[in-house]
C-alpha cells in the first residue's frame, strides 16, 4: 500500500499548486495508507466516458467515471470539511494556492466573492454541489477530467 | 663629388608609414564577422516592432533581408553575389542547428511515439520523393513544355531532394501555433529523421544517374546502404555520446572547459559520420540525446547553463545566416524559368504531401491508442515546409550530369519561398479558424477561468501520478540496465537525481523563513477582506471591473506544468516556470512546517488538514 510520502516523492506533484489536495483525494477518511484497490478507485474517476457502453445498467450504481461522479470528485477537492458546501473560506484557500504572490488579499477576496455570486442561487453565500454542477454545465468536464491510461 | 642620390626606381626607400590600410590581410575573418553582425542586427530590427514576429515568421523576414542584400550586391557589381558554398553549409552551418534540436529533444516522448515518427519519416519521405519524381517525369514527357530531356532518374533525384521537410523552417513556425505535445514531437521527430532518408536517397539517385546501367543488385545495394547509413550514424553518435559522458565524470577540477567537451564530442560525431558517408545528422542527434542525461548530472550548474545558452546562440546564428544566404543566393543569374516545371513542382509537392499524410495516418491510426484527428493531420501536412537543406542539395548537383541544373534551382527556390512565406504566414490563422469552429463563443464568466485552470491542474496532477507508476516493458528494462551499469560508470557519485530535488536543496530554510515572515504567504484571508464581506451584499460588478478581474486572473494564475517545454530556437523557456515552481515549493514547505507545528502542539486531533 501507499503512504503520503510515496506521493510526495513525485517531483512533478511537488510543483503542482494543488498537489496536496490531489494527494489527499487518494486517501480515505483519516487514513494514512491506501491500498491498490483504493488507488484504482480514485483513478477510475478519470477514465474517459464512453458512449457505447453496452452494459449500461440503469438500475445499478453509477459508474465512477460518470460526469456527475467526476464533478463530485472535483467538488471534494474544494470542500475540506465535507459539509457539502464550498464556503468562501474554502474557495479562498484554493484560489490562493492557484495564484501567484502578486495578488493582494483584497483582490483575491473580491474574485472569490464574484465566483460565489455567479454560482450561488439560494443566497447562502456558499456553493452547494447542485449549484456547482449548474455552473459547470457548459464546461466539457468529460474531456477535462479524462486521461487515457494506456499509451 | 657628391655620391649620386638614389634614383626613384626599384630601390627607393619608403618612409615609415604612420597609417596603413591592409584589407587583404584580414579579408576573410572581416567579412565573416560582418555577415554575422549584420544577421544579428537584423534580428534586433525585427523585434523592435513587437507584433511583427507573431504575424510573420522570422525566417521570412531574414530571407527578405537576404534578398535586399543580394539585390544591392548585384546592382553594385553587376555579377551574381556569392552563392552559399555547400561545404560551408553542411560542415559548419547545419550541425549547430541539429545539435540544438537533438539536445533539447524530450527523449521520453520521442521514444513513446517512435513508431509513428519513423513511419512518417521513412515511408512518408519515400512516398513523397517517388511520387513527385514520377509525376514530374510524366509532365516532362509532354513535349509542349520543352522538358523532354530530363530523364526519369533526374526527376527522381529532384523529387528526393525536394521532399525534405526542413526542421529549421518548421519549428520556427510551430512556435506560434501552440500545438499539443503529441503533434509537436511528431513533426519535430519526423523532420529530424527524414533528413537521413533524404540524404541517402539523394546520394543513391545521384550515383545512379552517373552510372551507365543499373542492375538489380544496385537497387538492393541501395536499400542496404540506407540501413547502414542510418544505423551506422546512430551507432557512432551513441558511442561518442557515452565517451563524452564518461569524460565529464572527471572534469570537476576544470569546470571552466566542461562545456567545450559537449560541443567537441558532438561535432566529432558529425564529421566522423560524414567521413564514412554515414548520416551525420542522425549521428549528432543520437550523440546529443545520449549525452544529455548523463552530462546534465555530471557538470556544474553554471556549466550546464553555459552549454544551453551557447548552443542556442550557435544555432540561432546558423539559422539566421542560412536564411540570409538563401535570400542572397536567389538574386542573380542562376535561374532558368519554365512555367510548367515550376508550377507543377509546387503543385505536386502540395498534393503528394497532403495525400501522403492522409493515407499514412489512416494506416497508423489503427496501431495507435490515441488516434490523430483531422486537425492534427492538417497541421502535419500543411506544416511540411521546405528550407535550407533542399536548397543546398540542389546547389550540390554536378552540372555535367544535370544540364538543366538552373531549372532545378529555380523550382526549388519557388517551392521554398512559397512554403516559408505563404504557408508559414497563413498556418496560424488557419489553425485558429479550425479551432474556433468547434468551440462556441459566449461571454465567459470570471469564475470560468478559475474552474478551467483548476481542472487542468487536477488533470496534470493525476497524469503525473499515473506516469510515475505507469510501466512500460522496454523502458523498465532500459532503466534497470541504466541504473546497474551505465550510471555507475558514467556519473560521479553523490549527485541529486532530479532538477526539482536540486531546486529544493537550493532553497535554504532560512531564506524561506525570511520570505514567509515578510508576508509573502498568507494562509488566512486578512481581516480587511473579511470585514468587507460581512458589511454588505456583494455588489454587482461593472464590465470594466469584470475585465480587470479577468485580467488579474489571466496574469497571475499559475501555469500548468508542461511536460515538454515548447521548443524555441531563440530563448530558453525555463525562467518563468522556475519562478513559479519556487513559489509553490516555498509555500508548501511553509505550510508543512506550520502543520507539523500544529500537530505537535495539539493533542490527538484528527489530522484532517495536515497539508493545507
UniProtKB/TrEMBL annotation, chain A:
Matching PROSITE patterns:
EF_HAND_1, EF_HAND_2
- Domain EF-hand, by residue range, is 66-101, 107-142
Subcellular location per UniProt equals:
Cell membrane; Cytoplasm; Nucleus
Of the GO CC terms on this record, one is:
nucleus
Q: What single Pfam family name could you report for this chain, choosing any that match?
A: EF-hand_7
Protein's GO biological process = protein transport
**Which InterPro entries does the UniProt record give?**
Calcineurin_B_homologous, EF-hand-dom_pair, EF_Hand_1_Ca_BS, EF_hand_dom
Q: Sorted alphabetically, which keywords does the UniProt record give?
A: Calcium, Cell membrane, Cytoplasm, Lipoprotein, Membrane, Metal-binding, Myristate, Nucleus, Phosphoprotein, Protein transport, Repeat, Transport
Tell me the protein family, please.
Belongs to the calcineurin regulatory subunit family. CHP subfamily.
What protein is this chain from? CHP1 protein
This chain's source organism reads Neopipo cinnamomea
Q: Gene name on record?
A: Chp1
From TrEMBL, chain B:
Among InterPro entries, the record links this protein to: Cation/H_exchanger_CPA1 (IPR018422), Cation/H_exchanger_TM (IPR006153), NaH_exchanger (IPR004709), NHE-2/4 (IPR001953), NHE_CaM-bd (IPR032103)
Lineage: superkingdom: Eukaryota
The signal peptide, as residue positions, is none
Q: Which subcellular locations apply to this protein?
A: Apical cell membrane
Under Gene3D superfamilies, the record lists: 6.10.140.1330, 6.10.250.1040, 6.10.250.2020
Keywords tagged on the record:
Antiport, Cell membrane, Ion transport, Membrane, Sodium, Sodium transport, Transmembrane, Transmembrane helix, Transport
Which Pfam family, any one, appears in the UniProt record? Na_H_Exchanger
Tell me the Gene Ontology biological-process terms attached to this UniProt entry: regulation of intracellular pH; sodium ion import across plasma membrane
A GO molecular function annotation here is: potassium:proton antiporter activity
Topology of the protein relative to the lipid bilayer: Multi-pass membrane protein
List, alphabetically, the GO terms of the cellular component aspect: apical plasma membrane
Ranges for domain Cation/H+ exchanger transmembrane come to 36-432
* Residue span(s) of domain Sodium/hydrogen exchanger regulatory region: 523-607
Q: Which sequence ranges are marked TM in the entry?
A: 55-76, 88-105, 117-140, 152-177, 183-205, 217-247, 267-288, 340-367, 379-401, 407-431
- What family, per the record? Belongs to the monovalent cation:proton antiporter 1 (CPA1) transporter (TC 2.A.36) family.
Official protein name in the record: Sodium/hydrogen exchanger
Amino acid at each position: 500500500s501507499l503512504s503520503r510520502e510515496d506521493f510526495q516523492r513525485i517531483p512533478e506533484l511537488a510543483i503542482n499548486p494543488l498537489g496536496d489536495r490531489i494527494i489527499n483525494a487518494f486517501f480515505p477518511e483519516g487514513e494514512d495508507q491506501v491500498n491498490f484497490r483504493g488507488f484504482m478507485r480514485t483513478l477510475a474517476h478519470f477514465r474517459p466516458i464512453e458512449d457505447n457502453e453496452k452494459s449500461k445498467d440503469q438500475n445499478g450504481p453509477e459508474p465512477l467515471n460518470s460526469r456527475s461522479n467526476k464533478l463530485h470528485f472535483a467538488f471534494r477537492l474544494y470542500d475540506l470539511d465535507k459539509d457539502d458546501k464550498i464556503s468562501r473560506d474554502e474557495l479562498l484557500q484554493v484560489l490562493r494556492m492557484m495564484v501567484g504572490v502578486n495578488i493582494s488579499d483584497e483582490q483575491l477576496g473580491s474574485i472569490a466573492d464574484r465566483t460565489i455570486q455567479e454560482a450561488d442561487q439560494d443566497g447562502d453565500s456558499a456553493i452547494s454541489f447542485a449549484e456547482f454542477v449548474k455552473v459547470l454545465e457548459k464546461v466539457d468536464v468529460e474531456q477535462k477530467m479524462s486521461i487515457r491510461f494506456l499509451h | 663629388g657628391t655620391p649620386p642620390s638614389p634614383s626613384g626606381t626599384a630601390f627607393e626607400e619608403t618612409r615609415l608609414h604612420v597609417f596603413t590600410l591592409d584589407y587583404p590581410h584580414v579579408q576573410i575573418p572581416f567579412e565573416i564577422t560582418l555577415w554575422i553582425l549584420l544577421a544579428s542586427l537584423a534580428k534586433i530590427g525585427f523585434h523592435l516592432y513587437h507584433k511583427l514576429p507573431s504575424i510573420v515568421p522570422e525566417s521570412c523576414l531574414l530571407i527578405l533581408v537576404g534578398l535586399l542584400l543580394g539585390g544591392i550586391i548585384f546592382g553594385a557589381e553587376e555579377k551574381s553575389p556569392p552563392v552559399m558554398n555547400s561545404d560551408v553549409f553542411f560542415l559548419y552551418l547545419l550541425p549547430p542547428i541539429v545539435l540544438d534540436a537533438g539536445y533539447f529533444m524530450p527523449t521520453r516522448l520521442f521514444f513513446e511515439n517512435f513508431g509513428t515518427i519513423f513511419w512518417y519519416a521513412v515511408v512518408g519521405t519515400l512516398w513523397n520523393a517517388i511520387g513527385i519524381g514520377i509525376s514530374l517525369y510524366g509532365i516532362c514527357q509532354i513535349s509542349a513544355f520543352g522538358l523532354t530531356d530530363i530523364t526519369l532518374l533526374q526527376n527522381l533525384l529532384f523529387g528526393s531532394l525536394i521532399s525534405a521537410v526542413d526542421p529549421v523552417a518548421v519549428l520556427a513556425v510551430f512556435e506560434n501555433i501552440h500545438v499539443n505535445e503529441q503533434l509537436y514531437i511528431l513533426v519535430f521527430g519526423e523532420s529530424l529523421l527524414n533528413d537521413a532518408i533524404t540524404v541517402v536517397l539523394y546520394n543513391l539517385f545521384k550515383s545512379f544517374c552517373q552510372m551507365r546501367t543499373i542492375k538489380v543488385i544496385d537497387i538492393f545495394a541501395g536499400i542496404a546502404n540506407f540501413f547502414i547509413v542510418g544505423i551506422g550514424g546512430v551507432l557512432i553518435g551513441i558511442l561518442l555520446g557515452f565517451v563524452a559522458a564518461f569524460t565529464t565524470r572527471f572534469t570537476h577540477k576544470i569546470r571552466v572547459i566542461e562545456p567545450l567537451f559537449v560541443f567537441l564530442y558532438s561535432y566529432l560525431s558529425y564529421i566522423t559520420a560524414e567521413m564514412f558517408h554515414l548520416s551525420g545528422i542522425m549521428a549528432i542527434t543520437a550523440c546529443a540525446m545520449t549525452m544529455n542525461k548523463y552530462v546534465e548530472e555530471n557538470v556544474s550548474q553554471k556549466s550546464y547553463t553555459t552549454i544551453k545558452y551557447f548552443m542556442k546562440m550557435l544555432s540561432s546564428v546558423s539559422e539566421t545566416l542560412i536564411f540570409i544566404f538563401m535570400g542572397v543566393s536567389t538574386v542573380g543569374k542562376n535561374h532558368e524559368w519554365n512555367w510548367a516545371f515550376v508550377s507543377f513542382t509546387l503543385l505536386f509537392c502540395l498534393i503528394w504531401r497532403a495525400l501522403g499524410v492522409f493515407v499514412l495516418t489512416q494506416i497508423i491510426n489503427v496501431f495507435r491508442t490515441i488516434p490523430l484527428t483531422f486537425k492534427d493531420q492538417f497541421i502535419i501536412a500543411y506544416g511540411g515546409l521546405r528550407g535550407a537543406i533542399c536548397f543546398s542539395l540542389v546547389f550540390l548537383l554536378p552540372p555535367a550530369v544535370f544540364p538543366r541544373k538552373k531549372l532545378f534551382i529555380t523550382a526549388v527556390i519557388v517551392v521554398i519561398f512559397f512554403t516559408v512565406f505563404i504557408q508559414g504566414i497563413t498556418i496560424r490563422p488557419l489553425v485558429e479558424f479550425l479551432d474556433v469552429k468547434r468551440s462556441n463563443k459566449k461571454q465567459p464568466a470570471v469564475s470560468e477561468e478559475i474552474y478551467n485552470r483548476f481542472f487542468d491542474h487536477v488533470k496534470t496532477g493525476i497524469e503525473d501520478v499515473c506516469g510515475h507508476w505507469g510501466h512500460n516493458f522496454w523502458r523498465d528494462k532500459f532503466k534497470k540496465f541504466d541504473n546497474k551499469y551505465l550510471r555507475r560508470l558514467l556519473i560521479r557519485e553523490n549527485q541529486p537525481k532530479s532538477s526539482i530535488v536540486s531546486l529544493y536543496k537550493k532553497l535554504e530554510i532560512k531564506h524561506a523563513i525570511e520570505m514567509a515572515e515578510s508576508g509573502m504567504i498568507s494562509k488566512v484571508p486578512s481581516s480587511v477582506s473579511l470585514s468587507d464581506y460581512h458589511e454588505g451584499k456583494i455588489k454587482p460588478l461593472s464590465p470594466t471591473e469584470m475585465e480587470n478581474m479577468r485580467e488579474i486572473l489571466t496574469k497571475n494564475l499559475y501555469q500548468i506544468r508542461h511536460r515538454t517545454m515548447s521548443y524555441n530556437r531563440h530563448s530558453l523557456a525555463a525562467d518563468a516556470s522556475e519562478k513559479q515552481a519556487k513559489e509553490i515549493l516555498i509555500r508548501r514547505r511553509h505550510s508543512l512546517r506550520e502543520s507539523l507545528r500544529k500537530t505537535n502542539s495539539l493533542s490527538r486531533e484528527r489530522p484532517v488538514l495536515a497539508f493545507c
